[in-house]
Write a structure and sequence with these properties.
homodimer, Ald_DH_C (chains A, B), Aldehyde Dehydrogenase, Chain A, domain 1, NAD (chains A, B), 2 domains, oxidoreductase (chains A, B), Aldehyde Dehydrogenase, Chain A, domain 2, alpha/beta
């Protein structure tokens, strides 16, 4: 069955590998929630499936559970009322190890086939998952659909393709024949078996539970590892559905479903750290705070640890050929999901003497006004604004807005909006604060907070941006300039700081966005992440090669 | 110039990548020290060059040195009398960082071209290096030539090929065009820059200073990193010559020679650990004891650490179709360089009721006698024996022979031989000791020491071998069986323990040998090593990719 799955998706897999190597635009899963793509009934069926999850236990017949966990609250103002089985570590790990035995031996085609079928079925569940993502993360529906569904599925496929690409470089067998001058050559038959590391632990976050977890989850599965998925206590449901789908496909393919398990736990339950240090855990994929990510890197030394943590994303404004386009683009980036993206810009450097534009010189005040006006326009109509802003995921974000107000001069205040449908939803518009270059903010203010920083000149801005990204981490850097030398300087600074650079975004592409198969998400070269989604280093150490060799005169081993 | 180097060696590089993917026999550098290969005068010139090194300072015009280090003694019984510049860490690191700036930007072709030219020039110096290896490690001349010269150079080329293969999967640029339905597509021009990690530290060992150091050294250089080479205080000369050659090529190519530096230090000088923990050190390649390797893995958390440590290599004897061939093969493996190889077998499991052979049943005693007799024959003539045994590298090895004698019943004692040419050389034949399965040795006795262990049956032997390799590490596992089921069981045990398996070696291939481009050396899947030579995981995290993207409507950045 797993080979049938492989054959079903082989063409997709080959396209994925091809896309990874050319890095042009490619997407397997449509981001349009249109009935023409997903079917006339998909939207209603998906919503109903999500609603049927509420206020009851989530059934998941997995091993070694005792008791229940789960107290998720929608950022739109109600409790989900779902409970999940709560595993006992000491029983779960042996159960997973036992389940993994036949998976371990199944080989790359079975691993890829099962993984690809899981992703295809997740795609068919995109509406259900979209509502689950919306009501755990606070994303607006369209974003929850796209980022939580097809974009996350594309990242899953990318990880599977990346693993397949690497495993394909290793031959199953080789004939080795070494000449011996006048004597008969030495002849050996060799075989190379791909062996997974063991059990992978995937630790999800509360803002992008699927998008950030799928790469590690599917890189592990596609290389033969078992996976324990540990969601953030605030965003369990999207990953519980994912685990349910994975277990269903595994069982159909004749494998033990406990190859993929859910590790639900309650807030303030230290059990996750205990699990992360267990010797059976060979791989850890983490998205979340720098504190927790650094702790894992420094303590879970028995495992390969892949982290995405926090950072300070920045915009350097030198000059532009489209001031209004720039302002609109930046405003949208700051508003999108209320800045609760690891890619949202935070520090914006603008020369204190202003910049060149096609309409002539624009003063510092004119540039900042263009940006704050664009934000005000985007958020002026609450009913439309909430479809971009979404809701505030947690109280920490709200408190951060308060703290940021005191850091400088408020250029645009954050205000509360009323959601037309969810009266209890917490909605906030972006806050823009001006601070001195001397006190340029070097910690992450995750949420709808940005700082405008007047600089003496662009050189100063580039230097600051490079240093802050290098020391404090960054996933994105954005630059605006019409000057080729400035663009080169920005590219060099980005290379030195190990941060992806976007230049002159004035239209429909935003710095927050990272496209699977084309954009590396993170570089692994600054403190914001120790890995990139997805590259060879992200997959190649999740498996090992064990070889057997024997002289050909003797009958070969299997 | 570096591009000229690249063009000069491009065909070799492409062959190397091809060889890596097919894993059949391939070697770029001839292992024959014949004048027909290396030239009529090469042997004499190389010896004279080595001799000219003795009893004087080794000139290396590298930055930031103060004072001298070096007190190497040949295991053949004399002091080399060579001193080396001793770097000051606090000055060396900034000097290397400064030198690395232009190297960092030079790009994959320059990195590969310079690396390949260095290896080609090392090949031309193989005789000089052979003498240097012989008189630091104690290897016999032929082994010092082959393993220290062409085989090490092949491993260097393998690492360069592996790095090139991975970097080649990443396009320099991409055109990204995302359809927008009825609207114009979004179009972006993207570029991907390969950025090295920084400075790599390569820590050599005293038995295979070049073979074990070249993979890390050249994997670093080929991915644009600077390299500090820290030899074992007992085997500096071969790596000093290597560094000299590297610096010469770098200078010719227009780069600062301090991109590759030597970090010579004296025994018991703790400065190596201080260096390993410096934040500038981004990569560490280590070969040596488990104590030091584990310390680096647990403490040098700022760096990617690749280690080869100690382990317990084993032989499982179930049955054979060539008892004498098996005995001769095992005897040679035990004698070669007096067991001072990380791949030498140590524990030999033989069923207590004997084994099947073509000549009928052979008792436990008959099998052990066949092995010990073969050793005695190989070592009977001292003049011939020393060409296989080489000399004992250090006193620790000699003391280990004494300690091993007390572990059980001595089946074949280790005796001192007189070297016909070097009266003061320390030469020892292999010791074979019988121990109970209950007290099967689980620590490494590096040197000419092996343990014969009677077992109830082959199942018991396979179980023991798997458990010991899994818990205590192993680089090799050897098995003898004519039974396909036993061979399968051995292959499964090897996969579970992450150790390379050799079956039924009775001829001219020995378990100690590991061929570049075909055999993975180490798996990274048991405690003997956390990496393999050389695979994708060994190279892919030595560089990162930093991308730049810009809408195509705007003029593209460089």
């Amino acid at each position: 069955m797993s080979i049938a799955f492989f054959e079903r998706h082989r063409a997709t897999l080959e396209q994925a590998v091809q896309a990874l190597q050319s890095r042009g635009y490619w997407s397997q899963f449509s981001e349009s929630p249109s009935p023409r793509v997903y079917g006339e009934t998909a939207a209603d069926t998906g919503k109903a499936a999500y609603e049927a999850r509420l206020n009851r236990p989530f059934e998941l017949a997995q091993a070694a559970s005792a008791g229940l966990a789960g107290s998720e609250a929608s950022p739109y103002g109600f409790n989900l009322g779902i409970t999940y089985p709560k595993p006992v570590i000491g029983q779960l790990l042996p159960a997973v190890s036992a389940a993994a035995a036949s998976w371990r031996r199944a080989g790359p085609k079975a691993w890829a086939g099962v993984s690809l079928e899981i992703v295809a079925r997740l795609n068919a569940r995109s509406f259900e998952i979209a509502h689950a993502v919306m009501h755990t993360t606070g994303q607006a529906f369209m974003m929850a659909f796209q980022a939580g569904g097809p974009h996350a599925q594309d990242r899953a496929l990318e990880a599977i393709g990346c693993a397949w690409q690497q495993m394909s470089l290793i031959p199953a067998t080789a004939d080795w024949e070494k000449p011996q001058g006048k004597h008969a050559p030495l002849q050996m038959r060799k075989s190379y078996r791909i062996v997974p590391r063991g059990i992978g632990l995937v630790i999800g976050c509360c803002t992008f539970p699927t998008w950030n977890s799928y790469p590690g989850l599917f890189a592990n599965l596609a290389t033969g590892n078992a996976v324990i998925v540990k969601p953030h206590p605030g965003a369990i449901l999207p990953l519980a559905i994912t685990v349910e789908v994975a277990r269903e496909v595994l069982a159909e393919a004749g494998f033990a479903p406990d190859i993929v398990t859910l590790f639900a736990h309650d807030r303030d339950d230290a059990v996750a750290r205990e699990l992360a240090l267990r010797p059976e855990i060979a791989l850890i994929d983490f998205t979340g705070s720098s504190a927790n990510g650094n702790w894992l890197e420094r303590n879970a030394l028995q495992a390969k640890v892949y982290t995405e943590k926090s950072g300070v994303n920045q915009i350097v404004i030198d000059s532009t050929d489209d001031l209004q386009g720039m302002a609109r683009n930046i405003a949208f980036s700051l508003c999108l999901y209320s800045g609760q993206m690891c890619t949202t810009p935070q520090n914006i450097y603008i020369p204190k003497d202003g910049i060149r534009t096609p309409e002539g010189h624009a003063s510092f005040e004119a540039v900042t006004a263009a940006i704050t006006d664009a934000i005000a326009r985007l958020t002026g109509d609450a009913a439309k604004a909430v479809e971009v802003l979404g809701a505030i995921q947690n109280d920490g974000v709200r408190q951060r807005i308060e703290a940021a107000r005191t850091r400088g001069k408020v250029l645009l205040d954050s205000i509360a909006l009323q959601h037309p449908q969810f009266a209890e939803a917490c909605i906030r518009t972006p806050l823009v604060v001006q601070v001195d270059a001397n006190s340029a903010v070097t910690e992450e203010f995750f949420g709808p907070v940005s700082f405008v920083i007047p600089v003496d000149d662009t050189t100063m801005a580039v230097t600051l941006a490079e240093r802050i990204a290098q020391r404090h981490g960054a996933l994105t850097l954005s630059g605006y300039s019409t000057d080729p030398q400035v663009k080169d300087a920005l590219a060099d600074a980005a290379a030195n700081a190990g941060v992806a650079l976007s230049l002159n975004l004035t239209g429909g592409v935003f710095v927050n966005q990272s496209a699977a198969f084309s954009d590396y998400h993170g570089t692994g070269a600054n403190p914001a992440a120790n890995a990139a989604l997805a590259d060879a280093a992200f997959v190649a150490d999740r498996f090992r090669v064990v070889q057997t060799r024997e002289p050909v005169s003797a009958p070969a081993a299997n």
